[in-house]
Protein: Glutamine-dependent NAD(+) synthetase
Organism: Lampropedia puyangensis
Amino acid sequence: MTLSICIAQLNPVVGDVKGNLAKAIAAAESAHQQAHQLVVFPELFLCGYAAEDLFFRPSFLEDCALALQELIQASIRWPGLHILMGHPQAVDAAAPWPRDSDFLPPAWNAVSLISQAQVLATYRKQALPNYGVFDEKRYFASSTVMEQGLAADHIEASAATVVDIAGVRLGLLICEDAWVPQPALRAKAAGAQALVVVNASPFVVGKPQQRAHILAQRAQETGLPLVYAHMVGGQDELVFDGHSFALQADGGMVAMAPGFEEILWPLVLITDSASAQQCRWADAEKTQPQPWDDASLQAWPQIWQALVLATRDYVRKNGFAHVLLGLSGGLDSALVLAIAVDALGADKVRAVMMPSPYTASISLEDSREMVRRLGVQYDEISIRETFETFKLSLAAQFQGRAEDTTEENLQARIRGVMLMALSNKFGGLLLTTGNKSEVAMGYSTLYGDMCGGFGPLKDVYKSDAFELARWRNSCGDAYGVANPIPERIITRPPSAELREGQTDQDSLPPYDMLDAILRLRMEQNQSRAEIVAAGFPEDRVDQVIRLLRINEYKRRQAAPGPKLSARVFGKDWRYPITNGYRG
């Protein structure tokens, strides 16, 4: 006995319920034409994941329910096909449900199995993540109280949902349900022969390997094969990377779908004729690389593809046709330019060089060379006269005071005004070019180089930016134009070029040291004493901690950017602006 399954690893748009429905109908039609018996959509596909406070709007939940009904009615056109669709389901205020307080979340995070104009089953998510970027307890009710440490023989099968498709019993789970043992064990106790896990799991570097490791534990604990059906696409700060996969009952990897792209991915589940209880994925005898050994899952390709996908989706999903950015001749703007071209194509990207009295000739030369290689629209607009005019206008006010960072910031703000004017006039989205190290230290100018709608490098440390640029230049034309970044841009000392002879290291620790301290503070929550004990100079640790603390007000006004690491500034970092703590 076989069950033909199609994993719809697709890219929804949050809030575009009609558009997501149309995409689902097209995928179901294709699955039916390929004679699949089950098509599996990701978690909350119908509304898009991270719809946030849209869930508090009754009209939004009503529109999702209407779209689900439309899909149910459309299913009559596909005899023999079952559709597993992720969607929100409004909570009935009168219905009992486990809760810790009097607050009633508006919805369930649900999946429904649909066939021939009927809903055959609906499963509601049990384990609700409420950490990092997740706020699911704000929006969703849990279908059961999770009981940690409960023995397998005492798991209540009533908490599970197991469906029968063509004689194969599938246990349904939603994302976080598979990161703890109990839901999978409940499905096993309820008679499941295999597990189907639908997901919307935000990307961080190494996450595909981590998922495979965790899900392998679930397969081994239950003795059941499973499929991990994942979403793809960018949504504000989040990136969903795809990499859907199938595991045998022993946790062995059968196959993994491509990352960072949409695909209708076919699989076949076989029931062993000798034992109706045993299922396995077809073609398991073929040698498949384990995901943590797969070269395509190494860090730099993951990071680059995530940045490209995040930038493309942020631009297109928000209705922009093209982008622009200020090109400085430095590493960060060069990286953003390369990302933008790989994401959108050279014809959708405009680079603007705005030299000041302190701009080095090699910055102009390298910028011209890079735009020549990439073939983007390029303009040079001198800010020299504008800068002198500003200083003249302020001369009476500044009389008797030496030039300082005020004049440096004036240059950045003039550039920001000009870039925003070009954005307004021509309708392109302005990309910011600041990296994570600069964002952390406030090494940027509010209303200057912080101007813009999206920051691709917001979660890329400066030390990693060098490595990322070298990697992109080393991979030929596999991701777009070969060798897009002139070597001198990578090797010359970084400088804001806002005063004569300036370099970044005049005022900041060496980037390797800075980034190491930031990782300990941001990602591991280490105290000052712990970081000093790790061998870093006290004065540098104090400098980094102080700058990180006092620049929170800037970060609150910064453009969003894609999450790549364990902790990104934004939804993942929630510190008070007014903060007297020094530990």
About this structure: The chain is about 35% helix and 15% strand. Confidence is low (pLDDT under 50) at residues 145-155, 284-290. The first strand starts at residue 2 and ends at 9. The first helix runs from residue 17 to 33.
